[in-house]
Amino acid sequence: MDPWLVLLALVVLAVLFVVAPVAAATFAYWRRPRRLVCPEEGTVARVTVDARRAALGEALGRRALEAVRCSFWPRLRFCRQECLAAPLHEAPPDATAAPAGRRGAPIKTILVPLDGSAGSESVLWTVGELARVQGARVRLLRVAVPAPVIRAADERVVAFADQETARVEHEEMAYLKQAARDLEGLAVETVVRFGDPAAEIVSEAEASGADLVAMATHQRRGVTRVLKGSVAERVERAATVPVVLVPYGEPALSGDRA
User: Fold this and answer.
1) Closest of 209, 206, 240, 244 to residue 34, by C-alpha
2) Structural domain of residue 126, as residue ranges?
3) What is the pTM of this model?
4) Which of 57, 167, 192, 237 reaches 20 to 30 Å from 9, CA-CA?
């Protein structure tokens, strides 16, 4: 038997059963958000590092940590990231984070993603009560599917993507304004985005400086949960601000709304 083939087979096996699992575990370790004490604020921040760079640096024996998200951004967007200095100490589980970036600071902006259904609006009562207590503004978000070019059967273009996008945006904005009626007396803003729901929700939370994301979630179990996942769960993992989840279609304390 050719010794080079044996050597190649051993290398392949090592990559498949040793290197790849270790690399995947290392990437997963660095991918999760961390609760770290911010040197500038003196309180807890939720920080996500560049997992690929961190994993590669660990493999090469060179520490390479860089924050890509932080609950104190954009206000501290250009900080020196001293919270990542070695050794990396995470805040204890009982440490509390200041949602607006200062200890005891109030919640000023609540982002509320809606999917266009009545079930997703079950979170509005909870949001309304919280916003009134905190004196916060509410930002309603609808993430729509990117509009395609519409063609007739003869391949003739009926509507271009930008025209269809404008039409969809107009319809979704009307929906959000209708939903805003449940938040009477509060400062309400509306915004429509296009793309992947979880990614756009996280991006909007960061861009708008939201202090809290509140949304409804389906209570999936077992195989269904594994296969379909949940937009709310993805947002909860990726967001750098607290996320409040309300059961989909089950308004909190609905009997007290009258």
Assistant:
1) 240
2) 109-256
3) 0.59
4) 57
